[in-house]
Design goal:
Oligomer: heterodimer
Number of helices of chain B: 8
Largest sheet of chain B: 3 strands, mixed
Number of strands of chain A: 8
Strand content of chain B: 5-15%
Distance between the termini of chain B: 49 Å
Largest sheet of chain A: 4 strands, antiparallel
Largest interface: A-B, 76 and 84 residues
Order of helices and strands of chain A: EEEEHHHEEEE
Structural class of chain A: alpha+beta
Strand order of the largest sheet of chain A: 3-4-5-6
Structural class of chain B: alpha+beta
Helix content of chain B: 40-55%
Shape of chain A: globular
Strand content of chain A: 35-45%
Order of helices and strands of chain B: EHHEEHEHHHHH
Number of strands of chain B: 4
Radius of gyration of chain A: 16 Å
Chain lengths: ~160, ~200
C-alpha cells in the first residue's frame, strides 16, 4: 500500500491511498484502501485541518475505520506528540474489533494544522505525524521551500 | 511555503537491501508533487501525481507490482478524500487499470460535475470490479492487459505461496470434508479446470 497527504497554497488538505491488497487474497476482496473512513481521511473546518493515510492489515483497518477514528480524536488534540500514541492504541491496538486473525499491523501518516494563537491570522502551521505497529514504515516528505525531499525507512 | 507533501510506501517489512530503492522512490514521488504545488496546482492534483509515481514502480504493493489474488490476478483498491469539499472517491477490486488512484480521483471529478449541473443523478462514492473498469474507459484512463501489472517478483511469490497454501488446504479438507467430497479436492486440478463450483469449495476463509 502507498499513500499521500498534502497541503496546498490555498490551505486545502487532501489524503489518498492505493493498494494491491494482501498476497493471494480472495478474488473480489476489497481492503481498507477502498473503504470510506478506513484508508484515508481529510477534513478542513475553517483553519482546523487534518488529513490521514493508513496502511496495514486491511480487515482490521476496515473494522476500526482507522483513518476516521484517528482524525476524530486527533482533531481535538492540542499536542500531536503527546497524544498520538495513546490515540493510536485506543483506536487500533486495544480495539475490540481487532484480533490476531485479522492482524494488528498498521501504519499511519498524517498532517494536522496546529492551533493558532488567538487573532493570529498571519499563517497556519502544520505538523506531520507518523506511527506504526509493524517492523518498518517507508516515508518521504518535502515542502515547496525545500531544495530536496527527505526520505527514510522508520524501524 | 506554498504547501507540502508527505507520502508513505507502506508499513510492514522493508528489507535493508532495498532501503535505498524505497527512499529514492519516496523522494521522486515528493519531487513530482512539489513541482505541481510550486506551479500553483491543487493538493488533489499533487496527491494523484505522488501516488501515481508510487504505483508505477514495481517495488510497491500498488498498481504495477501489486500482490496477486489467489487466482493470480491484480485487483487494486484506491481512494482519495478532499478536506475542503469532503468528497470521497474510491475504487475496489479493480483489474486492468494502470493507475487506480487516477480512477478514484475521476470519481471526485464526476461528483463535482454532477453536483454542478444538477443532472439529478447521485454520483457514486465507490465503484467496484467491472463497472469501475468501464468507468475508467469512459474517462479515457489507461487500461492495460491482465499481465502488464504483474511483476516477475510477484509472480514468483504467488507461485510459492499458493503451492504451500494449497497443500495445507488439501490436508485440512481431507480431515474435515465428508468422504463423499474428498476425491473432489485435487490441487493440480484447481489450476487446470475452470469449474467455478470447485473454486467455491476451496476459496473460503
Amino acid at each position: 500500500t502507498v499513500g499521500a497527504v498534502c497541503v496546498d497554497c490555498y490551505g486545502n488538505v487532501v489524503a489518498g491511498v492505493s493498494s494491491g491488497g494482501i498476497l493471494i487474497k480472495q478474488p473480489g476482496r476489497v481492503g481498507q484502501a477502498a473503504m470510506y473512513g478506513a484508508g484515508c481521511w481529510a477534513d478542513k473546518k475553517n483553519d482546523d485541518c487534518i488529513a490521514i493515510s493508513t496502511t496495514g492489515s486491511g480487515e482490521s483497518l476496515t473494522k476500526t475505520l482507522l483513518a476516521y477514528s484517528l482524525a476524530l480524536k486527533l482533531q481535538k488534540s492540542h499536542s500531536i506528540i503527546t497524544d498520538l500514541d495513546e490515540v493510536f492504541n485506543d483506536c487500533f491496538m486495544n480495539s475490540r474489533f481487532v484480533n490476531d486473525v485479522t492482524g494488528r499491523f498498521a501504519g499511519v501518516l498524517g498532517v494536522k494544522s496546529t492551533p493558532l494563537e488567538k487573532n493570529d491570522t498571519t499563517d497556519t502551521e502544520f505538523e506531520i505525524f507518523v506511527t506504526f505497529s509493524s517492523d518498518s514504515m517507508s516515508i518521504g516528505y518535502q515542502t515547496t521551500a525545500d531544495e530536496e525531499a527527505s526520505a527514510e525507512i522508520l524501524r | 511555503s506554498r504547501g507540502f507533501i508527505a507520502i508513505h510506501c507502506g508499513a510492514g517489512y522493508h528489507s535493508k537491501k532495498k532501503s535505498e530503492n524505497y527512499n529514492a522512490l519516496a523522494r521522486k514521488a515528493c519531487r513530482a508533487a512539489i513541482e505541481a504545488l510550486r506551479s500553483g496546482k491543487s493538493a488533489r492534483e499533487a496527491v494523484v501525481l505522488a501516488i501515481t509515481c508510487l504505483e508505477d514502480d514495481t517495488i510497491t504493493n500498488a498498481g504495477n507490482g501489486s500482490n496477486l489474488t489467489f487466482a493470480g490476478d491484480v485487483e487494486c483498491d484506491a481512494s482519495i478524500m478532499c478536506g475542503r469539499t469532503l468528497n470521497f472517491g474510491a475504487i475496489g477490486a479493480v483489474s486492468h487499470v494502470k493507475n487506480p488512484i487516477k480512477l478514484a480521483h475521476e470519481l471526485l471529478v464526476y461528483q463535482e460535475e454532477v453536483e454542478s449541473n444538477l443532472m439529478g443523478r447521485i454520483p457514486p462514492n465507490m465503484l467496484c470490479g467491472k463497472g469501475a473498469k468501464k468507468f475508467a474507459k469512459e474517462r479515457n484512463l489507461e487500461v492495460v492487459g491482465s499481465q502488464e501489472l504483474i511483476s516477475d517478483d510477484m509472480f514468483r511469490q504467488h507461485c510459492k505461496y499458493t503451492k504451500a497454501y494449497t497443500k495445507e488446504l488439501k490436508k485440512f479438507q481431507e480431515n474435515s470434508l465428508p468422504p463423499s467430497k474428498k476425491q473432489r479436492v485435487d490441487s493440480e486440478n484447481i489450476f487446470k479446470t475452470n469449474d467455478s463450483n470447485q473454486d467455491k469449495s476451496i476459496l473460503h476463509d
